[in-house]
Specification:
By secondary structure, the chain is an all-alpha fold. It contains 9 helices and no strands. 62% of the residues lie in helices and 0% in strands.
Length: 196
């Protein structure tokens, strides 16, 4: 629902400490809601793959501390309303300990929720966890399934990871042809490692 995307946008403002007064946040949310209505597809539904609106796309590796408590509350509300990117961001918060106690189990839970909603970024991260045994038992088959689905949704990192796994035979027989095709897709999607 549109409300979950507005909550999501407001939570980004708190998370990265965007310089606005509290009253201004509601102006940004109102703007986001107006722009969101233009992103509804021809069937009158929002795409589950919808990403944050352009003015709210930020790099999440900002070192500056924001209001994590408020961001967490808004991400939680938004995730519980069906926003898969908010669920993915909760996973990141739990993984990093941003405003919450670092908790791998909780991080994996939110990654799974976002992955089930077909969020390609969450599927790629969860695939990485399975590939490396981080917080979950190592499982190459699950990693490959998640990477494949995310790569088909045009996630360049997932495509690159598949190229790597097929090239070295990680969980699959070595197949340089398939590996090269995934590397090519990753390169076309902008992955710099695949462009060498």
């Amino acid at each position: 629902p549109p409300q979950c995307y507005c909550l999501y946008s407001a939570s980004l403002i708190y998370w990265i400490n965007y310089p606005v007064k509290t009253d201004d946040i509601f102006i940004h949310v109102k703007t986001a809601k107006a722009k969101l209505s233009k992103t509804v597809n021809s069937h009158g539904k929002l795409s589950m793959r919808s990403q944050p609106l352009p003015e709210f796309r930020y790099t999440f590796h900002i070192k500056k501390k924001g209001d994590y408590k408020q961001a967490y509350e808004y991400f939680l509300k938004s995730a519980n309303s069906g926003n898969s990117q908010a669920a993915h961001n909760l996973a990141i918060m739990y993984h990093n300990g941003d405003g919450v106690k670092k908790d791998t189990t909780e991080s994996i839970k939110w990654l799974q929720i976002a992955s089930d909603a077909k969020n390609p970024y969450a599927m790629t991260q969860l695939g990485n966890n399975y590939m490396n045994g981080l917080g979950v038992p190592k499982d190459y088959k699950k990693a490959i399934a998640l990477f494949t689905e995310a790569a088909l949704l045009d996630n360049p990192q997932a495509a690159y990871n598949l190229g790597y796994m097929y090239t070295i035979g990680m969980g699959v027989p070595i197949n340089n042809e398939i590996g090269a095709s995934w590397y090519e897709k990753a390169a076309l999607l902008g992955d710099e490692n695949a462009q060498i």
